[in-house]
Amino acid sequence: MNLNKSILTIIIMLFSFLSYSQIDGNKVKMLSAKIEVSLPDNFYRMTQEAIDIKYPYNSNKPQEVYTDKLGEINFTASLRENLPTEERHLPEVKKVLLKNIKTRGVSIVSDKFIKINNKVYILIEFISQGLDKKIYNMLYASNLNGKLLIGNFNFPNNEYDKKYNEAKYALNTLKIL
Q1: Hey, is 157 helix, strand or coil?
Q2: Residue 134, number of CB atoms within 10 A of its CB
Q3: Of 11, 65, 107, 168, which is the most buried if we count CB atoms within 10 A?
Q4: CA-CA distance, 128 to 5, in Å (whole number)?
């Protein structure tokens, strides 16, 4: 089983390296220019083929992903219609998200509401198990035109000291256009 995980990791890394289009600068627009975020200069937009390989069993796979060349550090964004999304419903949405996350056997670090650019977001930080290492996740969610804007900035947990502030900075630049 470990050999299969290693082979899959190598395939994802190789496919990732060959299939990204570089972003211009560090401000990127996502979801058909509905949001904007400042990401590290070395991030690339992942192709749909690479997303399908990286998230093969996830029915709620992200609609857009920006990542580093190794595919280990990711910023994702999606719009979902399956939860109420007015700001007054965010406490209920947070409960549902926490319940779903906890069923995956992860360690919750924190869950709170934050304000970014005058917009209220749910922020849930947790540690999950990746194929071969622990992953630190910063899941964010808010309302956007009647839909749930949801995404994640994640990175290997062993790089927490180097990547946490970078991820926090990116989240704090998130802007609804």
Answers
A1: helix
A2: 14
A3: 65
A4: 16
Tell me how far the alpha carbon of residue 131 is from its chain's centroid.
17
Rounded to whole angstroms, the Cα distance separating 105 from 41 reads: 33
- How many domains, the chain? 1
The C-alpha atoms of residue 47 and residue 51 are separated, in whole angstroms, by 6
Determine the structural domain holding residue 165 and report its residue range: 2-176
Quick one: the chain helix, strand, coil %, rounded to 5? 30, 40, 30
| Two structure tokens written together for 142 | 């808010």
pLDDT 10s digits, 46-88: 999 999 988 887 777 999 999 999 989 999 999 998 776 788 9
Burial annotation 75-93 (CB, 10 A radius, 16+ → b, else e): bbbbbeeebebeeeebeeb
Other Cβ atoms closer than 10 A to 148: 21
